[in-house]
Design goal:
This protein is of the alpha/beta class and 396 residues long. Helices cover 20% and strands 30% of the residues. Helix 1 runs parallel beside helix 6. It is globular and about 60 Å long.
């Protein structure tokens, strides 16, 4: 049986950051990383953003790499069981590995749709990017299912490639749950002006291959034909290993402030971890790059003995054509929102308040101001009049 002082299950950004975190505190402990993918650890955000305008895949790989960090990376290797009592994990080949500390950085799996006969790309991995990119070289008509982060980014990317794009989603607007109505209407119109066909308040009723391609029909009676289908309809956290190991699971793997699970020798971080943020109204599980990197690094450090409480409030970002934003905290269209626009739809800051305290900040085409936005949330100041926030954050 092979022994590792640290085993990391998962081969994404969280795993890379965790390995670096371990090495900052333990230069010599043995590390084993197990990934079901065939590619070394890479950054996911460019898959739906930068790679569509700059196709140099070399920039994806996480730095420093596993050779620099002196870790063993087991690719195309799926860990299928965890024995917490005996400190062992086993892979699909029947190999057994012993660990001192274990990190579950298992991420999530795309939610799927009941159309098994249609080759839908559930966009998540580098393999998915290669598949869709190759299709875009020879096909012209695309259906994008989902109007959230992935759906809007992929729709913009394909449109910029000169493709005909139809987006179908159940909500009234694109990114419906995040923004106030006037901004959502602005985004919708921006996409329509670019030629993207939006099927809002819509549900798929039929996907069927015929002589003209893939027939798409929704519950409202609309229909069209496309050549390929890509979906971004959310993730389901990969908690199977944790559940089988009898760890606490609560919309993800439950962890404490040190990122330990209900077993103190097993940690969890990234998309799969449900964390008790010490700020009002925050989501317990965050599926974004900054969280993957910061939480992974903290988990690795704590596995190596740092024992530091994790309280970082992660930010996230998106690009939709020429529109871009950075945000931190909780963005929910149902909250009280104070909008501080320089020019509506072009530059401004939106503050999301709950119980008169700022719980989220959206910097719309306002850059490099996340530290200031984070300070405002962490301070938990009560704003009797939210207009007092006007001018607090601006482009430098």
């Amino acid at each position: 049986m092979t022994h590792y002082d640290y085993i990391v299950v998962g081969g994404g950004m969280t795993a890379s950051a965790a390995t670096a975190g371990i090495r900052r505190h333990d230069k010599s402990g043995t590390i084993g990383i197990f990934s079901s993918e065939r590619y070394p650890m890479y950054s996911r955000p460019p898959l739906s953003k930068k790679l569509w305008t700059d196709d140099r895949v070399e920039g994806l790989w996480m730095k420093p790499d596993v050779l620099t960090l002196h870790a063993d990376e087991h690719l195309t290797t799926t860990i299928n069981s965890v024995d917490a009592g005996n400190h062992t994990v086993s892979d699909q080949y029947g190999n057994l590995y012993h660990f001192g500390k274990l990190l579950l950085a298992t991420g999530g799996s795309p939610k799927t749709l009941p159309f098994p006969d249609i080759p839908i790309i559930y966009f998540r991995t580098l393999e998915d990017y290669f598949h869709l990119y190759q299709l875009a070289q020879t096909r012209d008509r695309f259906l994008v299912i989902g109007g959230g982060f992935i759906g809007t980014e992929i729709a913009a990317a394909l449109n910029l490639q000169g493709k005909s794009v139809t987006v179908i989603y159940p909500e009234a607007h694109l990114v419906d749950r995040l923004f106030p109505t006037d901004l959502k209407q602005h985004i919708d119109q921006f996409y329509r002006d670019k030629g993207v066909d939006l099927w809002n308040s819509s549900a798929l009723a039929q996907l069927e291959q015929d002589a003209q391609g893939i027939l798409v029909r929704d519950g409202n009676g609309r229909s069209t034909h496309v050549d390929a289908v890509v979906a971004g309809i959310g993730l389901r956290p990969n908690t199977d290993l944790a559940e089988a190991a009898h760890l606490s699971v609560r919309d993800g793997i439950a962890v404490n402030e040190y990122l330990q699970t209900s077993d103190p020798n097993i940690y969890a971080a990234g998309d799969v971890a449900s964390f008790p943020y010490p700020y009002p109204g925050q989501k317990s599980r965050v599926e974004h790059e900054d969280n993957a990197l910061s939480q992974g690094k903290a988990a690795g450090a704590n596995m190596a003995g740092a024992h530091r409480a994790y309280s970082h409030l992660p930010f996230f970002y998106s690009d939709m054509f020429s529109m871009g934003y950075e945000a931190v905290g909780l963005l929910d269209a149902n909250l009280e929102i104070f909008s501080d626009w320089v020019t509506f739809g072009e530059e401004g800051v939106l503050y999301y308040l709950k119980d008169r305290r700022v719980v989220g900040v959206l910097n719309w085409n306002v850059w490099d101001q996340i530290p200031k936005a984070r300070e405002i949330i962490v301070a938990q100041k009560i704003y009797g009049d939210p207009s007092a926030l006007a001018g607090t954050i601006r482009n430098r």
